Amino acid sequence: MVLGLFKSRPRPPTAPIERMHEIGTRSLPLRIVENARARRLTLRIETGGKGLRVTVPPGIDPREVDRFLDRHRGWLETRLAKLPDDAALRPGVKLPLRGVPHLIVHQPGRGTVTVDAVEGEPALIVHGDGAHLQRRLADFLKREAKRDIEILVAKHTASVGRRAKTVRYRDTTSRWGSCTSDGTLSFSWRIMMAPKTVIDYLVAHEVSHLKEMNHGPKFWALCRELCPRTDEARAWLKKNGGALQAIRFE
Prior knowledge:
Blueprint: E1 17-23, E2 26-34, E3 42-45, E4 52-56, H1 62-71, H2 73-81, E5 94-97, E6 100-107, E7 113-118, E8 121-127, H3 133-160, E9 166-170, E10 177-179, E11 184-188, H4 196-208, H5 217-226, H6 230-246
Parallel strand pairs: 2-4, 6-8, 9-11
Antiparallel strand pairs: 1-2, 3-4, 5-6, 7-8, 10-11
Helix pairs in contact: 3-4, 4-5, 4-6
């Protein structure tokens, strides 16, 4: 008898399991995904706190997933507490602009969005149909991002002696910015809700990639040269970025 003529086929991955998971006062969609390369369980909060994802090795006992989530309950509660329960924009809610909370005020009539003060408090006056308030605020942030970021790109590219091929603005959920090998810079317009120092850091970070397409020591040295408050800004974005991503503009 000859053995080993046929190799056993690898078991196809189990379809993802989706269910709700109660954590604190929230009930979040939980997606359990099997990965053949996984050697341990990993937990991730989806951008904006919209759900949870657990990646597991093949064939794991579902009860182990429950025990894993129980062990990380404190971590989840701490992280989720930093995210708003209701992130919808409406009149009376405050929206940060360059790190400064602005009261949203709706005024019927023609116009777009203007920055003003209401009873001495910074405010965003949104004109037009109230049904379009969120879209108008998103469009406003896009215009502000284009204005501020293009100035910073020009400043930092001059410092590093490199040119950006083009600058794009998107509503990305996985990253705040990117730089391609051909010199295309992309930024999330949501960064306009962050403090000015954080905006400057993000642009300095991506411009630094025009010269150092990596995250090695030379890259970070260049980034800190362009933005001396890099470490402070990185920490702020890591702590508060999820809350900015959670704000709904639709």
